[in-house]
Amino acid sequence: MKGVNPGYVVVEGPIGVGKTSLAARLADAFGAMPLLEHPEENPFLERFYRSRKQSALPTQLFFLFQRARQIEQLKQGDMFSNGYVADFLLDKDKLFARANLDDDELRLYDQVYAQMSLDLPVPDLVIYLQAPVDVLYERVRRRGVEYERYIEREYLQVLVDAYTQFFHHYTAAPLFVVNAEKINIVENDDDFQMLLSHIRKNRSGRHFLNPIAANL
């Protein structure tokens, strides 16, 4: 039902897993404010996918500044009105930095991150979507975003491994881990409502949902 304040909810996961679609649908379901990334605004992104080594640092810094501005928007808003649903967790920004930057670039990135002195709000819930690399690769290909045609399966595997490691140790907020391999939250309302029901029930601790094992 709309009008139920979700607080600050974050949907996370690797490229192609459906986090933006889910965040947008959850914001609509809760009557909350969507806080979504805009990768198309990053002028370095296509160059990064063409040649990750040459464009990794400016791509990463652009995203850092963009996400920091959005977090400031969240902090300045009324957190007790309709709530927010975001498709990114700023704590995870370093995951991409470590995966893509060389040692000197990473040191510079870390200095910039530290100088920004970000006072990050803690989410009321983080939803971590998982899917096998082959599924992600097929979804990325199918959605047909021009600059994403350069994404390699090997790069997706690096990201999946990094996400797995990150959330294995994540304790800052309640965590809901969802196997999204068989969930079509864009086109299947039953899938979305099933997931929404579990999200409403699991707002503390660490929980897992595996629709394959549950035969849902």
User: Quaternary status of these chains?
Assistant: single chain
CATH structural fold name? Rossmann fold
Shape estimate: globular
- Beta-strand share of residues: 5-15%
Task: Classify the secondary structure makeup into a structural class.
Answer: alpha/beta
Unreliable stretches covering 5 or more consecutive residues: none
Task: Give the total of beta strands.
Answer: 6
Mean pLDDT: 88
**N-to-C terminal Cα separation, in Å?**
22 Å
Name of the CATH architecture: 3-Layer(aba) Sandwich
Give the number of domains: 1
Computed CA radius of gyration, to the nearest angstrom: 17 Å
State the name of the first-level CATH class: Alpha Beta
Specify the CATH homologous superfamily: P-loop containing nucleotide triphosphate hydrolases
Helix amount = 40-55%
Describe the structure.
- This protein has nine helices and six strands; from the N terminus they run E-H-E-H-H-E-H-H-E-H-H-E-H-E-H.
- By secondary structure, the chain is α/β, with parallel strands linked by helices.
- The protein has a six-stranded parallel β-sheet.
- Strand 5 (175-179), helix 8 and strand 6 form a beta-alpha-beta unit.
- It is globular and about 45 Å long.
- The protein starts with 7 loop residues before the first strand and ends with a helix.
